[in-house]
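Entry for the shared binder. Reason: the reviewer on the internal report wants the predicted structure included alongside the sequence.
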Amino acid sequence: MARASEQLLQAQGLALRYPHPELGAWLHFAAGLFSYYTDFSSAAQSRIARAQMIARQAKLPALDAICSAWLAMLAYLDNDIAGTVGHASDCDHLAAPDRHGARERLCTALGLAHHLVGQSGSAQGWYAAARSHALADGDDAGLSALMFNMAQLRMVQARHDSLSNRVSGSKGLRLGADSIAHYNAAVGGSVMPGLTDILRAQILTVEGDFAAAMTLFENHLPTELVAGLARYGCSLLADLAWCRVNQGQPELALLQALEAEAELDPQGDADDREVTFSRLAQIHARLGDKSTAARHQAAAEAEWQKVAALQAGWAQALQQARLKPR
C-alpha cells in the first residue's frame, strides 16, 4: 500500500505537468481503488464515479465498463439495490467477454447479491464466472477477495441460524477462513490481512470456541476498527462481549455490551443492528437481566423484519434484471 501510494502520487504529479483526459480518468479510478482498500470509505465511490464521467466524455469504453463494475460492487456493499442492478446492467452492456477485470468484479458483485437472498444455485454460477475471469487476468487479489466474501456470507448465514436457535450450518467455515490465509500466503500477501483474522474470530464465536475468538478480537479489532470496520463496530463488540460472558468475565462483558449498544447507528445496516441486538439479548439473559434481554430481543426481531424486506427487494430486482454470468 505504501508503494502504491508513492507511485500514485508520482503519476498524479506527471499528469499535472502533462494533462491528458484519458490519463486523468484512469488516475481518478486508481485513487478510488486506493481509497477503498485503505478504509472502505465513501470517497471510493465518488472518485470512481468521477472517473466514469470523464471516461464517458472521452469515449473510453474499457474504463467506463470497469467503473460500472466497481460502482455495482460498492452499491451492493451499501445495500443500494437500484444502484447495484443499474451499474451491473451498464457493465454487462459495455464489457466485452475478454474485459476480464470488469467482468470479474461484475460477477463477484452479482454472485454476492444472489448469495445474500439465498439463491445459492445462481450465486455459484456467478462465482464460477468471476473465478474464470480472475484466472484469465492473473488477478490474485481478486481471487482472494472472492474467497473472503464467499466465506463471510457463509459465516453471516451460520451466525443468523445460531442466533435464531436454528441448526447452524457452520461446518467448514473455519476451513474456508484457513483457505484464504493459505492462498494469501502463497501469492505473497493480502491488502488487508487483518480482515481474515476478524472473520476467523467471528467464525470461532459461532462455533463456540470463545477463548480463541476472544484472543483474535483483542489482537486485531483495534486496528481493523480504525482501518475501515467502524461501521460494523457494534456487532463485533457484541461478539467480543459474548465471548467474555462465556469465558467467565461478566463485569467486562457487561461493559463491552454497553459499549456495543452505544455504537449502534440508527441509520446503520439492518443486518448489523439485528446481530447486535440479538447478541445483547443473549448477554443480558445470561447475566440474569431478563427485562433488558427481552427489550433487545424485540429490537432484534424488528430489525430482522427489515432485513427480510430488503432481501425480498433484492430478489425481485435481480429477477427483473435478467442478467446472466458470462
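Summary line for the report: The longest helix spans residues 290-321.
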